[in-house]
Write a structure and sequence with these properties.
Helices cover about 50% and strands about 5% of the residues. By secondary structure, it is mainly alpha-helical. The longest helix is centred in the middle third of the chain and has 18 residues.
Amino acid sequence: MAHAGIGDELLEEHDFVRPRARSSFEGMRELAFKHALTREVAYASIPHARRLRLHASFARWLEAFGGGRDEHAALLAHHYAEAVRPQEADLA
């Protein structure tokens, strides 16, 4: 989780996520799920159409604020690829 959003405080309060010691993005707070299973359940609970839009939104955010750094290339590619998955294109 690269940036905080609605509900992050609740997730942190219940110990589902924890702040990372060092963020991937200078000046930003970064959270990580405590357990991979919790992350998978949270991810699966997001409706597919919304998930596709969130991937695209994050990719645009990363392009705008990531500074074009090479180390973000794989993450950027992943989120754009997830946003345009052919088998779910009608949902986007």
